[in-house]
Design brief:
The protein is α/β, with parallel strands linked by helices. It contains eight helices and nine strands. A five-stranded parallel sheet has the order 2-7-1-8-9, sandwiched between helices. It has a four-stranded mixed sheet with strand order 4-3-6-5. It is globular, with a radius of gyration of 19 Å.
Amino acid sequence: MQKPKKGLLIILSGPSGVGKGVVCKALMERNPNLKLSVSATTRSKRPGEIDGVSYFFKTDEEFKRMIVNDEFLEYTSVYGSNYYGTPRAYVEEELAAGHDIILEIDVHGANQVKKCCPFAIAVFLAPPSMSALKSRLIGRGTEEPEVVERRFGEALYELRQAEKYDYIVVNDVLDKAVTAVEHIISAEHMRVFRRLDFVEDLEGGSKKQ
């Protein structure tokens, strides 16, 4: 059996309400080789969630031990309560198996991942306009007005971090946004440093002629 090529590590970030989850779901439906990274968390399991599929559920002690042992690509504490993080071993195993892995994380997590994984491909998902973003936040109808305003304020900060990313994709029309990310992934697979094995195979074949 041919040894699988190492997959791509793709970061997808963007402000709350921009549609990261919808884009990720569509990407995975259309691309069987693309997998969403499973995060670890210390929050309680909710009805219907499966350990190792929805999240890797950890106790505070287990999570903190993983931090000490440098077992996360990135991690954060949400509102000083529950921890969330991307387990290094899971991502490395999937990449080694040849799968492309997408991390749906915020700008802080993206900075952490880029420091330890400089070849990670960072894509910033942007709204078509700030007014459209605010309309989406309000339209969700799941948060109080003050929470919407806080998230909108955070979005302005996140947009200023976009210059640290490799690509910006505007999520105006879903299909166009998903196609744009697919094109990025396809192009990255053809980067020269990722295709040197192909060149070596050609050179080896020429010697047999």
